[in-house]
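Example for tutorial group B:
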């Protein structure tokens, strides 16, 4: 007797990083861009808003990731000068990458957050200029991408690496194992 295929997760995000992580984990998914205006900086509320804005046959997944330093969410830099200022602020310091995750079906909703601590090395003017000129900061919370050249900025990471990339994978796997034991290969 064959096992029926797992229903694809509806990913309420257009993030290529989130798609790549789901592919890496072997989780079937379809992308539905969220119809949600992002207001505020609470990643759990933003993840819930994204997930609630779409419907699908399978479970819906919404995720939002923020970079927090000195209690302030840095957001995505609008231009190179803003990116350099963010990176300068993170230089030689530890900051938090906080992701909100919402996994929902019509019957239930799970809301969680995951925090990873990231420490940057002290960055020189040359380091800043090199990274900013790479344009890798574009569209990235905190102005960097750890999965690319941004890895050269980091000296220490405490927590889920994939959370910093854009999806708290360990948390998602735990939720899928709890809610859908065996369906997606977990639990």
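The residue assignment follows.
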């Amino acid at each position: 007797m064959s096992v029926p295929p797992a229903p694809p997760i509806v990913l309420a995000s257009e993030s290529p990083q989130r798609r790549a992580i789901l592919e890496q984990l072997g989780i079937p998914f379809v992308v539905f861009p969220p119809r949600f205006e992002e207001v505020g900086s609470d990643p759990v509320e933003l993840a819930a808003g994204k997930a609630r804005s779409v419907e699908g046959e399978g479970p819906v997944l919404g995720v939002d990731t923020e970079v927090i330093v000195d209690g302030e969410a840095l957001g995505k830099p609008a231009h190179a000068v803003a990116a350099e200022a963010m990176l300068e602020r993170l230089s030689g310091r530890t900051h938090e990458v906080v992701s909100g995750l919402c996994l929902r079906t019509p019957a239930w909703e799970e809301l969680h957050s995951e925090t990873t601590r990231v420490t940057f090395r002290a960055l020189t003017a040359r380091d800043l200029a090199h990274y900013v000129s790479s344009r890798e900061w574009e569209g990235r919370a905190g102005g960097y991408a750890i999965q690319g050249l941004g890895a050269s900025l980091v000296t220490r990471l405490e927590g889920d690496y994939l959370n910093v990339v854009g999806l708290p994978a360990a948390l998602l796997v735990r939720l899928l194992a709890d809610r859908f034991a065996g369906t997606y290969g977990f639990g």
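The chain has one domain: 9-179. Compare this with the pattern of hydrophobic and polar residues in the output above.
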